[in-house]
Amino acid sequence: MQVTFFFQPTAAELESLARALKDLKLKTVAFGTYFNLFRPDDTGFMGANQAVMKLVAAQASLFGCTQFVTWSGSYSSQFGGEDPRNHTAEAVAQLHRAIREVVLPGPGTY
Predict the structure, then answer these.
(1) For the chain, where are the E strands, in sequence order?
(2) Helix (H, G, I), strand (E, B), or coil: what is residue 76?
(3) Which end of the chain is more exposed for a tag (fewer CB within 10 A), N or C?
(4) Quick one: angle between helices 50-58 and 89-103, nearest 10?
(5) Considering only CA atoms, which of 4, 3, 106 is closest in space to residue 58?
(6) Cα 108 to Cα 110: distance, rounded to the nearest angstrom
(7) Do 33 and 49 contact (CB within 8 A), yes or no?
């Protein structure tokens, strides 16, 4: 199953969910939040944001899952909006930065 969050769960809620899914013998194959990688602080798309994905990534081992689903997005403030910056080398670099920020632990999180 894919587990998608449209709210920010607590660490305790994630632990409880992981136990419940294991008890039900349901495998988590992916996590999602659908935040915009080009505008990580923008919560306009279903309330998703980078903070939720960071929390989920930090707790992914509880679920035995390392697959993440996100909406790659656009520099445009409109959902699905075009922006000339979307098709540049800088856009690719921004995707790399955003992904690293989500999956790599920050200082003091080991």
Answers:
(1) 2-4, 30-36, 68-71
(2) coil
(3) C
(4) 50
(5) 106
(6) 6
(7) yes
**Interatomic CA distance for residues 29 and 64, integer angstroms:** 8
**Two structure tokens written together for 63:** 């679920």
pTM attached to this predicted model: 0.73
Residue 68: beta bridge partners?
A: 31
Residue owning tokens 């520099």? 75
Residue segments in the chain with a per-residue pLDDT below the cut of 50: 108-110
Exposure b/e, 9-39, CB count within 10 A at least 16 = b: beeeebeebbeebeeeeeebeebbbbbbbbb
pLDDT attached to residue 109: 44
DSSP-based three-state secondary structure for 69: strand
Question: What per-residue confidence (pLDDT) applies to 8?
Answer: 82
